[in-house]
Amino acid sequence: MLSPSSLLHAGSAQKPDERIDVRAREISVNLPLYGRTLTGYHLYIVYSDAAGKEFVCEGFPFYSSAGQVPSTHALFYGAPGLLTQGHCGFMRDDGPAAVYGGNGGPLQGRRHSVTVLWGKGAGEAYRCFEEETAMFNAEKVPYRMATGPNSNTFVRTILDRCGVPALKPAGAVPAPGWEISLVR
User: In a 3-state reduction of DSSP, which class is residue 95?
Assistant: First the structure.
């Protein structure tokens, strides 16, 4: 967990070398049975290191028994055995969100972003995210797309567990599951 003294303020004249952003990407799920499309926001965390490399932490639905990400049809109808899983790693356009995210990978689609931490504490926060991701996955949290817990719950939970301000980008509405934090 970070101490308040490790947080730098937005008004600082110093250019941040490292930072943590919470980003939101619009996703849509087509529901042919109802003749509708649901649109919401998938939230994810991006850590930018001093060299400018970006690393992402995000949640996604996962069938542990089958070892795969489910179809969007299974997401909405809440198939049994579906879990919320998290992943942290180098940011790629073909990461977990690209598999189920509807509008492309994390770098594509309509996005919003807010910086929640910058400066030297950002690297410490990212290491905490990695540790908390392993613990979150071991908890076998069920996945419920429309109400949570879900990928947005994962993001909110690891931010809270690591003591990083849990801010959601303006305009990222709706973001179901964000209001749920599974703090131990």
Answer: coil
User: Residue 4 carries which side chain, given as an amino acid letter?
Assistant: P
Assess if residue 174 is contained within a domain.
Answer: no
- What is the predicted pLDDT for the residue at 72? 63
Domain that holds residue 100: 4-161
Say if 39 falls within a structural domain.
Answer: yes
Using only C-alpha atoms, the chain has a radius of gyration, in whole angstroms, of: 16
* Torsional sign, CA 119, 7, 151, 86: positive
Q: What pLDDT digit, counting tens, does each position of 61-93 carry?
A: 988 777 777 766 666 666 678 899 999 998 766
Which segments in the chain show pLDDT lower than 50? Answer: 3-14, 96-109
Q: What is the DSSP string of 120-141?
A: THHHHHHHHHHHHHHHHHHT-E
> Which of 47, 16, 62, 49 has its CA nearest to residue 130?
47
pTM of the model: 0.81
Strand stretches in the chain, DSSP E? 19-31, 36-48, 54-63, 82-90, 111-118, 141-142
Q: Could you say which DSSP state residue 68 is in?
A: B
CA atoms of 65 and 76, how far apart (whole Å): 19
| Count: domains in the chain | 1
Give the pLDDT of residue 89.
Answer: 92
Residue 176 lies in a domain: no
Q: Which amino acid is at 95?
A: G
